[in-house]
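Researcher: Please predict.
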Amino acid sequence: MRQVSTKYLPIFSGRFFSIGKLLLLGAILMSVFVFSMIFGMRLAVRGTLVEVPSLVGMSRSDAERVISSAGLTLIVSGERYDSQVPHGAIISQVPGAGVDLKEDGDVRVILSLGPRINPVPDLRDTTVRAARMMAEQNGYELGYVSEVVLPDGDDGRIISQYPAAHSSENIGDKIDVLVSKKEQVAYIMPDLVGQNLNRVLSLLKRHGLQVGQIEYRSVPNAVRGVILRQFPEPGYQLQRGQEINLEVAR
C-alpha cells in the first residue's frame, strides 16, 4: 500500500494562517477607518450648529448685532400693534431662543408698532359697505362678516362687532362683524281667480304680501269685484313683501 507524504503540510498550513491574519487585520483597519469617517462627519456637522439667542424685547439694531455675532441672519417678517412692547422692539422670534440652528441660518422676528393710537370705531347699526369705509378711515380692515337670521331684524345691519367699539387693546388690524339677515318666509301663490277682492286684500295683508297694480275691466256676466286674472300665477313661490298684481271685474 502506497503512503502519502505529509512533509509539505506544515508549510501550507502556515501560509494559510498568515493570509488569514492579514485579512483579519485589514478588516479591522477598514472598520476603524469607516468609524472615524462617520464620527468625523458628525463632529463637523455639530460644529456648524449655533444656539439661537433670545431677541424678544430687543430693538432691531441690538438684535442685528447679537445675531451677527452668532453667525446668523436676522429677517423681519412683519409688524403688529402691541400695547405691552415698545415701538420698534421685537415681539416674537422663530426659531425660539435656545434652539440649535446651522450657521448662516435665518431667524425671523415680528416688530412692535407700539400701542394703537386710534380706538376701534363703532360699526353697529351700519351696513357692511359703510362699515368697511369707516374701518379703513380709522386704520383698520373689515375681517369676518357673519350673518344671523332674525325675524324682526333690519336686513343687512351690523348688530355686533369684535373687538368692541372704542377698544384700544392689542387686537390686530381686523374688525369682525355680525350682520342681521331678515328671515325670508316663502309662500306658494294661491289661486285667487274668482275670489272677492276685499277678502283677498285682507288675506294678503295678514301674511305680509303687498298688492301692486289693480286693473278693473268690464266683463259680461262677471260679478263685480271678483278677480279675473293674477300675477304671479298660482303655484309661484312668493317672498314676504313681494307685490301681487290683480285684474278685477268692474
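Model: Residues 1-47 form one domain.
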